[in-house]
Design a protein that fits this description.
Rossmann fold, single chain, 4 domains
Length: about 475
């Protein structure tokens, strides 16, 4: 549990650094307002973290830019979940060398999950000497202090691995959107799946207090947010270790009870903790979206055990089928890993069978990527990448057929949608409550509003519709 006096003292200290940074960054930029570029890799939690980093930069006198060539400060917020994400970071950091040479005063910083891995931080230190600031997920609240030393001491600043188990509330925040927003309710993970690096880089589970979450949700609704997503590595564990009688279903119900016209979503939900109470709460409240992201990862009990997922195929199907029976037009989405070490043809076919039985709206699919520091990285893996790629292709074909059938069944029906963005000239993207994109011909002024749309055409994952 957080020590309030300690956290308040720390935040006061960071406010002092923010006040000092404003003049320093202005002078460093050549007597003009400094520009900051922040790019986020990975999950929605990283996006939420970047909104805090942007908030602290803005409070320090910076303006935000989408052009890194114009920036005085560049921050990459990194992801460690997949090897591909790490490779992209290294490639993009390498491309900054020429920019740093052209503008010596440019400060390049890296943060996020990758930076919590010692071997990655060592590689950055040795191979990218023009990176001046590196910090991990546990010290985001200290960003003003770290930035101050990076621009004033003439030395590179590296800080990571200091998980004090506390939650620092009240950090400045610059939200990326005006009608869709992320609301973290907890941090960290206690599950330790054998393939997953997250508990090692994000720390153990800790929940924000419900009163703080509800106050933030109310402020978002008051500001005009129409779609609020509650975030946690495993939202179903919310409330653990709090000295309050609260669980995730209760929190979700309380958020949905806030007065206003908005939707509330959540992710991610671990199957081992998904309860019928949660499903009943979703079914009983029209503000809670009828979309459940419930990662199953594998349809084989053997593989699930090796993954340390702590549920069985039967348990997963039990909660999935209960959800479909209770929530009309439920959209179920999931994550699945293909080619986990030791996965046999029989194991893979069990995954395909589960996909056919559940009929997911969509899947996030990954070929297994070993992560240094996880138990699975040491598992024997006799199968070639070619076999895994063939399995992935087969899985995608099965899911495409299911998605096409589901979308075709939606033609002729009317849905309430949130209009989100411009897809192309004269065409906007909107989204149903069950998280399916619908293209509509409409003026850009409708972005950010709810509308009724009749589905006129189905194209796999994307639908076309017309305003009612």
């Amino acid at each position: 549990m957080s020590d309030i006096s300690t956290t308040e003292q720390e935040l006061t200290k960071q406010e002092d650094y923010i006040s000092r940074l404003e003049d320093i960054l202005y002078l460093r930029a050549g007597n003009r307002q400094p520009l900051a570029f922040v790019h986020t890799y990975g999950c929605q939690q990283n996006v939420a973290d970047s909104e805090k980093i942007k908030g602290m930069l803005v409070r320090s006198g910076c303006a935000l830019t989408e052009q890194k060539e114009d920036a005085d400060i560049i921050i990459f917020n990194t992801c460690a979940v997949r090897e591909h994400a790490e490779d992209r970071v290294f490639g993009n950091v390498g491309a900054l060398k020429a920019l740093k040479k052209k503008k010596p005063s440019l400060l390049i910083g890296l943060c996020g999950c990758m930076m919590e891995q010692e071997h990655i931080a060592d590689k950055i230190y040795k191979s990218f000497p023009y990176v001046g600031l590196v910090f991990g997920t546990h010290v985001i609240h200290k960003f003003p202090e770290l930035l101050y030393h990076a621009v004033t001491d003439g030395k590179r600043v590296f800080e990571r691995g200091n998980d004090d188990g506390q939650i620092y509330e009240g950090l400045p925040l610059h939200r990326d959107g005006s009608f869709k927003g992320w609301l973290p309710i907890m941090y960290g993970c206690d599950n330790f799946c054998t393939y997953c690096i997250v508990p090692h880089v994000r720390g153990r589970e800790r929940s924000r207090r419900p009163g703080v979450i509800l106050d933030e949700a109310r402020s978002m609704v008051k500001a005009g947010f129409k779609d609020i997503t509650l975030l946690g590595q495993n939202v179903n564990s919310y409330g653990k270790w709090l000295d309050e009688d609260v669980d995730f279903a209760g929190l979700l119900s309380d958020v949905a009870a806030i007065e206003g016209d908005f939707w509330v979503r959540f992710m991610t939900s671990h199957p081992k903790d998904a309860s019928k109470k949660l499903i009943d709460t979703m079914a009983e409240n029209p503000k809670i979206c009828n979309h459940l992201h419930l990662p199953f990862q594998s349809g084989s009990d053997t593989i699930l055990s090796r993954m340390n997922r702590r549920y069985t195929r039967e348990k997963y199907l039990e909660i999935a089928n209960y959800a479909k029976s209770r929530i009309p037009d439920l959209s179920l989405t999931s994550d699945v890993i293909v080619g986990f070490p030791g996965e046999t043809e029989e194991d893979f076919q069990a995954t395909l069978d589960l996909i056919r039985e559940v009929k997911f709206t969509s899947l996030f699919t990954f070929i297994y990527s070993p992560r240094v520091g996880t138990p699975a990285a040491k598992f024997e893996d006799p199968y070639t990448h070619e076999v895994k790629a063939r399995h992935m292709g087969e899985l995608l074909r099965v899911q495409e057929e299911i998605a096409a059938q589901r979308c075709a069944a939606m033609v002729g029906r009317t849905y309430r949608v949130l209009v989100e963005e411009q897809a192309r000239e004269g065409v906007l993207n909107s989204r149903t409550q069950n998280n399916i994109v619908v293209e509509i011909e409409a003026p850009a002024e409708l972005i950010g509003s709810f509308r009724e749309v009749e589905i006129t055409e189905a194209r796999n994952w994307i639908l076309r519709g017309k305003l009612k």
